[in-house]
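Severity: low
Component: inverse-folding endpoint
Summary: output formatting inconsistent between runs
Steps to reproduce: submit the following structure tokens with default settings.
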């Protein structure tokens, strides 16, 4: 019921913004072509806003589209998406006055692959999947099964620090209570950290041997906004165009360095990977290193300078020899 009420308010607000000429576009979510999925909706038609939805499957980080649209934009933003917007503002990729943020407090997004694993059925065989507080109810063949939300939410959602947008023009609902499980959120990362170095190297060799270098991770990442990526340079050529595992690893390491201080742990890179490489194990580790070393979290203050673009007199100088 809460999602339905939020959905109705979203449609009213979006229609009003378009009718009053306050925005040229609305970016939100509509029902996807596959069961239990959503897809981005970008429209300037006020009648199309009736297709906008809010549900436990609004997984996309829509901030990615802000750098592609000209004019004033109204955008639906969850907590992590909101921080990506602020980060883009900090990097002068987006002007704050050109964005009307429709904030959606987010209790976490359901990972359908986890649901499929728990019930042993493909999503097409599921009758219904609904969120009920700290539980998720899955209906299969008319039988309802309940699971703790912590078992079916995306790992990055379980570790989310700011589920309610901090920067917004309109907050569509009250602050959201999040089902958090930081241990589960970092399980894969801690498993890797516990491996001997040689075993960890073998793990990543195996994973990146499967990479087809489709660049879905780069394309979906709001923090990857360079007009020309280093992998496309030919003078010098940093990595070979053939997707060898060594070059795939170099691509991901350098990409992680480039997005350090801009990554909000939205998890889109891992979700978009067609061969299911655990990319969040890299991005989250970088996210935590940035926090530990610089006490900096991406997208928290639009007035703050981006990481590595300034220094403080109190910064440690241990690296100077």
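Observed output (run 2 of 3):
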């Amino acid at each position: 019921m809460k999602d339905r009420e939020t959905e109705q308010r979203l449609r009213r607000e979006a229609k009003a913004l378009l009718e009053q000429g306050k925005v040229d576009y609305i970016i939100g979510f509509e029902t996807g072509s596959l069961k239990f999925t959503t897809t981005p909706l970008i429209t300037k038609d006020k009648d199309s806003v009736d297709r906008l939805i809010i549900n436990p499957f609004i997984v996309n980080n829509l901030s990615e589209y802000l750098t592609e649209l000209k004019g004033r934009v109204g955008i639906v933003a969850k907590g992590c998406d909101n921080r990506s917007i602020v980060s883009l503002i900090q990097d002068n990729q987006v002007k704050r006055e050109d964005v009307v943020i429709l904030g959606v407090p987010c209790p976490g997004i359901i990972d359908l692959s986890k649901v499929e694993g728990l019930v042993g059925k493909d999503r097409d065989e599921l009758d219904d999947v609904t969120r009920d507080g700290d539980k998720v109810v899955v209906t299969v063949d008319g039988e309802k099964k309940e699971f703790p939300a912590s078992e079916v939410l995306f790992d990055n959602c379980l570790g989310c620090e700011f589920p309610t947008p901090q920067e917004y023009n309109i907050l569509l609902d009250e602050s959201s209570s999040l089902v958090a499980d930081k241990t589960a959120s970092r399980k894969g990362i801690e498993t890797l950290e516990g491996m001997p170095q040689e075993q960890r190297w073998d793990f990543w060799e195996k994973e990146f041997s499967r990479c087809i270098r489709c660049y879905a991770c780069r394309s979906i990442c709001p923090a990857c906004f360079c007009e020309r990526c280093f992998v496309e340079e030919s003078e010098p050529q940093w990595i070979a165009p053939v997707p060898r595992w060594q070059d795939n690893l170099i691509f991901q390491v350098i990409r992680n360095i480039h997005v350090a201080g801009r990554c909000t742990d939205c998890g889109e890179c891992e979700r978009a990977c067609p061969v299911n490489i655990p990319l969040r194990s890299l991005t989250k580790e970088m996210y935590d290193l940035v926090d530990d070393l610089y006490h900096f979290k991406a997208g928290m203050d639009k007035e703050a300078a981006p990481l590595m673009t300034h220094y403080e007199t109190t910064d440690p100088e241990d690296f100077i020899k």
